[in-house]
Amino acid sequence: MSKEITDNIARVRANIAEAAIKSGRSPADVTLVAAAKTQPVEKIRQAIAAGVDAIGENRVQEMGQKHTQGAYRGAPLHFIGHLQSNKTSRVVGVCDLIESVGSPALVSLIGKKSVSLGIVQKVLIEVNIGREAQKSGVLPENTAQILELASHIGGMNVLGLMAVPPIFEKKDKNCRYFDAMYQLFVDMSQKKYDNVSMHFLSMGMSDSYAEAILAGANMVRIGSAIFGERETEGGLLNWDS
User: How far apart are CA 84 and CA 35, in angstroms?
Assistant: First the structure.
């Protein structure tokens, strides 16, 4: 097993524990998802052996290739990237949790595919909390509407919300989006929908997960802080979901 990955996960776990305790929760309340985009099968297996709670993938084709090689054995598999409608059938029933369901069309497609397979697909609703044109997800004011839709769709169980807030150099600017997401999470938790339960608030990546946990996140998606920076032709690129 790679000592670097083991040490990195131990460091991340320690930071998660500190933030969780400061926010009045147990470290065990926070789910650690290792964001494995571009990572080879062997490194994913090492991360699972070192104790991450789940593996997250961004790309459908890459995920399918690794899945056939047994990369995810021993850990739940989450899809955390932008999901195109025409690739829905390749994710439903393969992933334990689809975190990035960000449109009514996806809700309907996932439900239809799940029913055809005779399964119940667990999902999170992605919220575009920063209102960024280049990002997917429903706008905050439309969250209740999509949850209402999902509550009437067979084959689906909504377990919470997910967000990829804007990235700022100054972390205090990130915090207002984390705070806004947590308030939305609380508001949605007070509504009663069939097949909807606000168990998870997934937000926070390698450069912001401690702040996200302090704001109320209980699921974080960590890439570079676990696997290291990814090399590209132009040099090093820090990446996450």
Answer: 19
Average pLDDT over residues 223-235: 71
For 107-163, write each residue's pLDDT tens digit: 999 999 999 999 999 999 999 999 999 999 999 999 999 999 999 999 999 999 999
What is the distance of C-alpha 141 from the center of its chain?
21
How do residues 12-59 score in pLDDT, each as one tens digit?
999 999 999 999 999 999 999 999 999 999 999 999 999 999 999 999
Residue 183 forms part of a structural domain: yes
Per the structure, the complete domain to which residue 192 belongs is given by: 3-224
Q: What is the pLDDT of residues 67-97, one digit of tens each?
A: 999 999 999 999 999 999 999 999 999 999 9
Q: Which residue has the tokens 């990546």?
A: 205
Answer yes or no: is 219 within a domain: yes
User: CA–CA distance from 90 to each of 60, 149, 177 (Å)?
Assistant: 7, 23, 32
Residue whose pair of structure tokens reads 């080879």 in the numeric block: 40
CA distances from 132 to 16, 154, 162, 220 (A): 28, 31, 15, 21
- The pTM assigned to this predicted structure is 0.93
Q: Give the number of domains in the chain.
A: 1
Assess if residue 241 is contained within a domain.
Answer: no
Backbone angles phi, psi at 169, to 5 degrees: -65, -35
> CA-to-CA distance for 120 and 106, rounded, in angstroms?
15
